[in-house]
Specification:
By secondary structure, the protein is mainly beta. The protein has no helices and eleven strands. Strands 2, 4, 5, 6, 9, 10 and 11 form a seven-stranded mixed sheet that branches.
Length: about 130
C-alpha cells in the first residue's frame, strides 16, 4: 500500500518560515521518480487548492500565484522525499497541507490528476 507521510507543520508567526516534508513508501510508489509530486492545502469550508508541483526530475516547478516567490518545492529522488519551503508566511496560508503523487502529466495542478495523497499536516500562521 502506498503511503505518503507529511511532517513539519506547526504554529508560526506572520513573516516566519516553515519547511514541510513528505516521504513516500510502499510498493506501488516504488518508482518515486516516475511521479510528479504536488502540494495542496485546504481550510475548513473550502475546497482543496493547488499550491505547488515539481516534475519527476526536479527540472521544472509550478506554483499558485498566491505563493509564488514565497514558497519553494523540491524533491530528492534518492531519499524519496519532497519538500515545501514556505517563507514570508501570512495568516492566509493557514491550512492543512497535503502532498500528493501523480503519474498524469509533467506538472499537474488539478486535484483529480493525483492518485496518492498523504494525511495532511496543519500549518497555522498567527501572532
Amino acid at each position: 500500500q502506498v503511503q505518503l507521510v507529511e511532517s513539519g507543520g506547526g504554529l508560526v508567526q506572520p513573516g516566519g518560515s516553515l519547511r514541510l516534508s513528505c516521504e513516500s513508501s510502499g510498493r506501488t510508489l516504488r518508482n518515486f521518480r516516475g511521479y510528479a509530486m504536488g502540494w495542496f492545502r485546504q481550510t475548513p469550508g473550502k475546497e482543496r487548492e493547488f499550491v505547488a508541483v515539481v516534475n519527476w526530475n526536479a527540472g521544472s516547478t509550478y506554483y499558485a500565484d498566491s505563493v509564488k516567490g514565497r514558497f519553494t518545492v523540491s524533491r530528492d529522488n534518492v531519499k524519496n522525499t519532497v519538500n515545501l519551503q514556505m517563507n514570508s508566511l501570512e495568516p492566509e496560508d493557514t491550512a492543512v497541507y497535503y502532498c500528493a503523487a501523480s503519474d498524469v502529466g509533467p506538472l499537474p495542478t488539478e486535484e483529480g490528476r493525483y492518485g496518492y495523497w498523504g494525511q495532511g499536516t496543519q500549518v497555522i500562521v498567527s501572532s
